[in-house]
Amino acid sequence: MLDDYEGSDDDESGVDGENKAARRERKRKRFQEELEEAMEQRELEPERKKTKQEVMKEVIAKSKLHKYERQQAKEDDEDTRAQLDRELPDLLAALRGHKVKPTNKPAVNGGLHPDRLAQINASTKEGTEKEYDQRLRQMAMDKRAQPTERTKTDEEKAEEEAERLRELEAKRLRRMNGEPVSSDEESEGGEKDPRDLDGDMDFEVDEEDADEAREFGLGTLKTGVSIQPDVEDEDDFVIDPDLVASGSDVDLDSDDFSDEESADEAADDEEDADFLQDLLPKKQNEAVDKVAPSKALAYTYPCPQTHEEFLPIVNGVASLEVPTVVQRIRALYHPQLHAGNKEKLAKFAAVLVEHVAYLANHNGQMLVIESLIRHIHSLSKTHGDAVARAFRHSLQRMQETGQIGPGQLVVLTAIGSIYPTSDHFHQVVTPAITLMSRWLALTTPSSSALSLNGAYLVALAIKYQQLSRRYIPELLRFTLAALKSDTTIQDQELTSQHIHNLSSMMDLWTDKPAFTDIFAPAALALPALFKTTPKPARQAHQKLTILSNQGQLRRRPLELHHHRPLPIKTSIPKFEDNFNPGGHYEPDRERAEAAKLRKEHRREKKGALRELRRDAEFMAREQLREKKERDRAYEDRQRRIIGEIQREEGRERNEYEREKRKRKGRF
């Protein structure tokens, strides 16, 4: 082992020697090249007297060359001595008669043994690369290797939520004003919850709305909406393995769907559930949830592509179990189970839109209709085009027939609960508002049914304009016509509902500049109802009077703007009686102010420089005074020391003289 290390040291020393020799050779060549270049330059130039700089450069170059040659000779001697020192142990061993052990071949590649190196080189690269790829895939798929977001504080969460709401409100206002919206915002807006798109839309059911719904034949609504509903969204169901088609080898936990997409869908579902529960009272939600699926209900159903195919499926099913059938169809044909399920569910969503109108026309239960609307709302987030086309098709049929029945009323209500109604233009909401306005403008409330449908449409249109507050003249026109109709006056509850709509329109358009002119006909129509419906009519008339007076005060007559009169500019030169050549006569006020500021700045600058000079002189005087004091103290201390030394020398001299005289007298 000792011989191995010594051999290794010898090899390392040899390598160092070779490196030093190479460096010396390069350095010597560089000096020679510099010297030759200087000589050539001197030969090319005409003969002239050298300057001092050129002479010094030549002297420095020669000095460097001679110094390098001496250094090289010294290094050669040192290398020779080092070589002799390394060979001395072998020489001594040979002189003593000892056998010198052969030195092993030095290890290469970082000290690996030759046998070990051969074994490594003999291994195949294919296995190594395969193992590397496998470990790389494992590391990429390892969830623990992925960074996670830190836990946020309550303040940070509240700030993020407030920022999100502000962004959504800004987007909604841009859409409401008809401003251009980028494609990214449109795509985001299409997937957001309508509650987010329309802000905090108020869908709470109060007592008057309950009476209104009862008057319209839409069922009895109970007051007291749950603030935090317990019912989950129609998307929040677990796909039962028994519902999956036989022979299907689809894995619902496939890696094709990332965790981020699942998290986004879950967040959308939670927001969807919160919004949809605002449409249903708590007791109705509990009633829907408590309906247990019948044991006779099948677990597998075909996915109907038309309404005619869907009717045989639900004909033998109890009405309250229809949402369960729809839920199981959505589970069976989930988009993750098969590639073609997405198209099937898109057509099924259109079937549900048609079936909602069908149930309303055939006296279906409102609980079932509302549950199906929740399914349609959920499907509209993933199949928005299909649902929008289905609604537009229903609106087109409504336009062709010109009649509005319970089915059409439910469709219009579903549109208002699914889509944002405050946009400046929307492909579904805008045609719906146009159709409602057209019907209200062309229909005369000659019967109780027409008056009832009109009252519901007016209330629905007011809900549509809750945020945008756009003026729709057809609403007030139909309401006033209904209040003047004999059929409406005979029904006290229906009259109260029209008065309630009129009061809602007052609140909606109270900020309009033409409020007084818009509701002037209503001020004449309300006193005629004091006999039939005294309390609602008097309250509405009093409210209208107050709002009209306030609106009249806000209206100011047109007048000119109150501007300061500006003098007319003239080109006539201005003459000064007492002209002073040293003064400034600048006609422009801004330039005069600027010149004044510049002058003041120069004056302040001079004053500052004067203060700085005074401070510098004072510091110099103080430093000189301190220096003189230090020098004076030093001189005093030096004179005192010299005096003490001289006195000591005098005493010693006197002592010496006395001793000398004593000795002379003795001898």
UniProtKB/TrEMBL annotation:
Entry superkingdom = Eukaryota
GO BP of this protein: maturation of SSU-rRNA
Segments of skewed composition (Acidic residues) = 1-15, 199-212, 250-271
Where is the segment annotated Disordered? Answer: 1-82, 95-217, 244-271, 570-667
Which GO CC annotations does the UniProt entry carry?
Noc4p-Nop14p complex; small-subunit processome
Q: Which purpose does this protein serve, as stated in its record?
A: Involved in nucleolar processing of pre-18S ribosomal RNA. Has a role in the nuclear export of 40S pre-ribosomal subunit to the cytoplasm.
Q: What is the name of this protein?
A: Nop14-like protein
What is the species listed in this Swiss-Prot or TrEMBL entry? Carpinus fangiana
Provide the taxonomic classification.
Answer: Eukaryota, Viridiplantae, Streptophyta, Embryophyta, Tracheophyta
